[in-house]
Specification:
The chain has helices spanning about 15-25, 40-45, 60-65, 80-90, 105-115, 130-140, 175-190, 220-225, 300-310, 320-340, and strands at about 5-10, 30-35, 55, 70, 90-95, 120-125, 145-155, 195-205, 230-240, 245-250, 260-265, 270, 275-280, 285-290, 345. It is an alpha/beta fold. Helix 4 (about 80-90) packs parallel to helix 5. About 50% of the residues are buried.
């Protein structure tokens, strides 16, 4: 392989941001785009340096010998088929969250990617954001002592996606769209403990009746009538060692917009927004506000790390196996919501 990583982007919704991330890093170059809508490809190609090939069939992109790696940003149910094709063609692969629309498909992909020996990575913009990175590094150097509990949530007042019906069909939903970000980020900060059990509630209180859509948009009955997923979910995951995580995700609600996390440790605790560390010194409470420089855009940070994994052999910090564990946790919460019972989780294999 040469001195740069040549990347093909499949799916130009979230793929647009990832394409910009790869184009911004020194050793990354987007050489191909794939989408069913040619206008999307034209718009993204216009923002990229150099010539870019365009495809409407992901299989043709994956066969292109000038593509070294493939980013998958399609609807959830297509993540595994597209990524498997890339792996079969010996391409390195990065996927947007969630890994899949089911645990079974997620396991199949992880096993194939690991067997092929290609670099495989999740695209997780919350985990790679500057605030979460700070909290994770502080946790690993022992600032919080033993982290034993966390709360993590993402709440929108009116934010059901209305630009692609796959968001609201079976296999989509608020938890797989937003909640997985907050679940993954909290789990990573906690040190990625082994999940043991999950319990949860979930449902759709806004979307099926045409309410709560993106920025209060009105949608036709033909769209809202296809709602077969959750527009809210809440759950509790118990990990080995008695660690607990409360997780919530709302696409629509009568609450203020919020992306929040709270950490509870034996030496200190923390809050994501505004970024604050809480501790006690000499018998008195100490609240320290943390101001961080803006830093690198998370999509650029992820692209740079992926390139380094491929070209330099750097160990991947967010392999697809992490996505598999997150998939198991979120599916367990949703299963508990359906059955009304606690769900036990097995170790990812």
């Amino acid at each position: 392989m040469g001195k740069e990583l040549r990347v093909g982007i499949v799916g130009l919704g979230i793929g647009r941001l990832n394409a910009k991330g790869f184009a911004a890093v020194r050793r990354g170059r987007v050489v191909a785009l794939c989408d069913l809508v040619p206008d999307k490809m034209d718009r993204v190609a216009g923002d990229l340096p150099g010539p870019v090939k365009t495809y409407t069939d992901y299989r043709r992109l994956c066969r292109d010998p000038e593509v070294d790696a493939v980013f998958v940003g399609t609807p959830n149910h297509l993540h595994v088929p597209v990524a498997l094709e890339a792996v079969r063609r010996d391409k390195h692969v990065m996927l947007t969250k969630p890994l899949s629309d089911s645990v079974r498909a997620a396991k199949r992909l992880v096993q194939a990617a690991e067997a092929a020996g290609v670099v495989n990575m999740m695209s997780l913009s919350i985990r790679f954001g500057v605030e979460v990175q700070y909290l994770g590094k502080e946790a690993r150097r022992g600032r919080f002592g033993e982290l034993y509990y966390a709360r993590s949530r993402s709440i929108r007042r009116s934010g059901i996606p209305d630009w692609d019906v796959n968001f609201v069909r079976k296999g989509g939903g608020a938890f797989r769209d937003m909640g997985v970000h907050m679940l993954d980020a909290a789990w990573w900060i906690l040190g990625m403990p082994q999940p043991m059990t999950a319990t949860g509630v979930a449902g759709a209180r806004f979307g099926p009746r045409g309410a709560g859509y993106w920025q209060y948009h009105s949608v036709p009955r033909a769209f809202s009538g296809q709602f077969a997923s959750d527009d809210y979910s809440g759950g509790f995951i118990r990990f080995e060692g008695g660690i607990g995580l409360q997780i919530e995700s709302f696409w629509a609600s009568h609450q203020a917009d919020e992306c929040q996390m709270e950490l509870f440790g034996t030496r200190a605790g923390a809050r994501l927004d505004p970024l604050t560390v809480y501790s006690t010194k000499k018998g008195k409470p100490v609240d320290k506000s943390v101001r961080l420089p803006k830093g690198i855009d998370p999509f650029e940070r992820m692209a740079d790390h992926f390139v380094a994994c491929v070209l330099d052999g750097v160990e991947c910090e967010a392999p697809l196996r992490h996505g598999l564990v997150a998939q198991q946790m979120l599916e367990a919460v949703l299963k508990s919501a359906r059955t009304g019972r606690e769900v036990r989780l097995d170790r990812a294999k």
